[in-house]
Structures are given as C-alpha cells and as structure tokens.
Amino acid sequence: MEPGLPVHHSRKYCLSVGLVLLVVSVLIPTLTSKADTTDAAASLLSLVRVDVSGPITDIPLPIHSDLVDGQGIPYVLAIASAEQLQRCGCAYTVLDTAPAGTRYLLAASRDPRERREAGTVANVLYDDGFRIIVRSAPDLTAALSRLGLSPRPLSPVPLPFASPPAPARAAPGIAPNPRIQAMLDKVTEKSLSDSISGLSGLTEVVVGGEAYTITTRNTASGVPIEKATQYVYEQLNALGLTASYHSWSSTAYAGRNVIGELPGVSKPSEVILLVAHLDSINDRTDDPTDPAPGADDDGSGCAALLMAATILKDYRFERTIRFVFTTGEENGLLGSAVYAKKLKDEGQNVLDVVNLDMVAYSTQASPIQNLHTRIPQNPGYQADLAIATLFVEVVNTYGLSESLVPVILKESNDQGDQYSFWENDFPSIMVIEDDNNFNPNYHCKSNMDDLQYLNMAYEAAHTKASLGTVAHLAGLVNNTPTPAGSYLLLLQDQ
Ligand SMILES: [Zn+2]
C-alpha cells in the first residue's frame, strides 16, 4: 500500500528533535484548550496529539494510535476528557473536541497537494506532514481514496497493550537447515510470474471450472472480487489446505478474506500468519469495476503466499501456519481489522504475523527492502524486532543477501494490514519494497500496475526470505516431506 516516510535518524538529528520537543513542550500549554467544567462538556472528548519521549505506556491517556509524522517525530493520538487531560501532566495539542463516540479517519499521502485537496471533501482537523485527520462521515473513505489518499479509521477503542512483551523466540544466529534450503530452492520466478499474471488479468484463470479474467480486485467491484476470492479459495483447497472465507463488513464496504490453514502437529494452538491483501485499486477512476491490475500491489504478495503454501504444505511444522488473503485493505485496512479483532476476541495465540505488501518492484542493483516494526517506545516493539531480525538472518543464512538488502524501519507504519494486527497487540512486521525506490505505478498513478514493470528476481528473493522466516518461526518437524493428506493421521496419533 502506501509507504511510510523514510526515517533515518543521525545522532545529530535525534538531538535536534529532542530540542524541538523541548521547545514545543514549553509552548504547547498555551495552545491547548482550557478545560470546560460545565455539565454539557462532560460528554465531550478531545482528540489530542502527544509527542513521544519515553515508553508510550507512561502516557496516562487512552491511546488510539501510535504514529510517526512527516518530520519523523513519533507521537500518539489519544481521546480523553477534559478531566483526564488536566490530570495527565503531559504536553498535548488538541486537534478536535466532539461528543463521545465521534469517529475519525486518518488519510495518508506523501503528496501535500493531495492532502490539501482533502479539504474539498472534509474539514481537515490536522495535517501531520504525511497524513490528515478528519471526522468520519458516510462515503468519505471513498471520496478520500478518489483523491489519491489512503484512508483508515482511527480505532474507536484504545490500544490494548495487554500482553507482556513476547519472548524473543527468534534467537540470533540461526543455523542453516538443509531442508529449509530445499524449500527455498523450489521457488521459481516462472511460477511466481504465472501467478501474478493470472491475478492481474494478463492471462485467464479457472474459477469454478470456467475460464475467467480478473480485470480488477477492487473490493467494491462485485463479481470480479467475488471471482478473485473464489479463485484463491480453490487454489488453497486444491493444495489440501483447510480453506475458508472470513466475511466482514464496515460502514461503507463489505467483503471476504480468504484463509488457508496448515495445522501444526505438536503445538496447533500456536499460530503463525503469512498475510497479503488480495484487493487492488486504481486511483485514476471512480468506477470500482474499471481495470485495476494490482500486479505489485499486492499481486506480488499474494503470489508469494500461494507459492509458499504450495511448498510448505509438503512439510510438517510444530505450529499452525495460516495464509491470509485480505480484502478491503485499500479502503482502510478493513478486512484485516475485523479479522485481527476476531482473533483477539477469541483469544487465539497468534505468535507472529508477516505481512507482504508490494514486494516485486526494484530498479536497484542491490535491491533494498524495508521491514517495518512499531516504534521502539511501543511495548510491542521488541516482539516485532524479533521477527524482523529473524528475517534478516534468513536472508544472510540462505545466501539471499545479494538479492535483498533489508533495512528495518521503526515507524509504526499504518499503511498496511500489519497495523490491524498491531492494534490488537499481535507481533507483526510489514515486508515491502524500498520507500526510496517506490513503484511509480502504485495505484495506477503513472502506468497501470502491470507485471511488465516488475523485477521477478526481487519477487523470488522476497518469497524465499518470507518462506524461510515462516518455516523457522513455525518449527519444522524433523521428518521427510509428506503429502498434505497425512496430517490428519498424524494429528490423530498425537
Ligand atoms: Zn498494498
């Protein structure tokens, strides 16, 4: 989806940020609103920005999002009463004051012109240099999308921060596993490119026994997204995985995610998720049925998942692996938000989430790729970093370092489905191409987002690194490859 802003702090820059924060915190009390103590004000809540200087759990306010602004400064959005703000003893900036229950949208764009144009469809409460904040209203998500912004709803409930930091299971210095090497060797550029070709409508696919061309995977496209989700379901089913749909709905959109499950043999309740979004979007048109090939965004991630599922199904793992294809991502991370909340509500033990979103565009000789974690001040950061560290070790251990140069960014990037998992406190990373060599055809802004512009060696390296990461996370059981059907017998034995 949309890249975060590159944040590469030098020591000097950190110092200057510290000075700015000091000055801002001195000035801010004069900017904040005076508490209103009348009864009418009792049901009013303020949306405030609080800059982050230490652990965000030290901020005594209900935190609804942690973010990094356009200048690279981490902050949180909190929703609080006048009394809570008075008691908090922290520097804050009031962005809005409204009745309890007021919903907000965040909409990101690196283009200041697009953020300014948002003012033509909504009252912009705040622009942080990367994203704007507006009060939610019917049809506003679609209107902001049409202007080229990437909207998402602000969580109506505070972030949980419930679980203790996950143990760093990904111990440094993994040993190369020849059987995992054999898995990686099965990844081919041809198979990946065939897969992207079908998903992006360059070639026909077979859905429900009939040939079909997927011209768009826009969540609001009707038949096309129905066929695309059915296609993925049938692919997963044909591999012998347990395929299922997860239907979701929000105010303005509805859809279904597709999930394929490979049950773990000894710790089946411990779950590893490999995620990509199946839906696509074309910013140049208002008609959701117009072509939106989405070859890179995110056909590339979906093809990697299908390839990984095809290879991993022949092995047994301690933990359960789920391949999750979401929809509604381009309309505000909608499908993943409902799915992640469902996992949280059900108390599912999701240990790690790896989200692949745009992994096939690079024009660099040594292709950089970004691994996104939450900000270090978030208590979940260490768990995200453990996944990202393992990913880097897989790249180094399995000879992928000439094809991928990983760079870890710690920005709580809210422009991909990993954010939905972070909102529910699940350790997660986003794997994405380099922010500074970003696909110009993203959302069809320049050319259509077609296969011809992709770097398939880069796509294959991403697929191998992700597959290897998941194999290490899930715990390969020391056994020879078995057909997927054998899992049932093995499960009954244990
Ligand atoms: Zn995307």
Strand content: 15-25%
- CATH fold type of the largest domain: Aminopeptidase
Kindly report the average pLDDT value: 88
The helix count comes to: 13
The computed structural class is: alpha+beta
> What small molecules accompany the polymer chains?
zinc ion
First-last Cα distance: 42 Å
Q: What is the 3D form? A: globular
Low-confidence stretches: 2-36, 483-494
The percentage helix is 25-40%
Total count of domains? 2
Topology (elements, then pairings):
Elements: H1 11-31, E1 44-51, E2 63-68, E3 74-80, H2 82-88, E4 93-99, E5 104-108, H3 112-117, E6 124-127, E7 131-135, H4 140-146, E8 150-153, H5 178-185, H6 189-199, E9 205-207, E10 210-212, H7 223-238, E11 242-249, E12 254-262, E13 267-277, H8 295-312, E14 319-326, H9 334-345, E15 349-356, E16 368-373, H10 381-397, E17 405-410, H11 418-423, E18 428-433, H12 456-474, H13 486-493
Parallel strand pairs: 13-14, 13-15, 15-18, 16-17
Antiparallel strand pairs: 1-3, 1-4, 2-3, 5-7, 5-8, 6-7, 9-10, 11-12, 12-14, 16-18
Helix pairs in contact: 5-12, 6-8, 6-12, 8-12, 10-12
Bound molecules: zinc ion (ZN).
Fold and architecture overview:
The protein has 13 helices and 18 strands. The protein is of the alpha+beta class. The chain folds into two domains: 135 residues, no CATH class; 316 residues, 3-Layer(aba) Sandwich (Aminopeptidase). A hairpin with a 3-residue loop joins strand 6 and strand 7. The chain is globular. Bound molecules: zinc ion. Zinc ion binds next to helix 8.
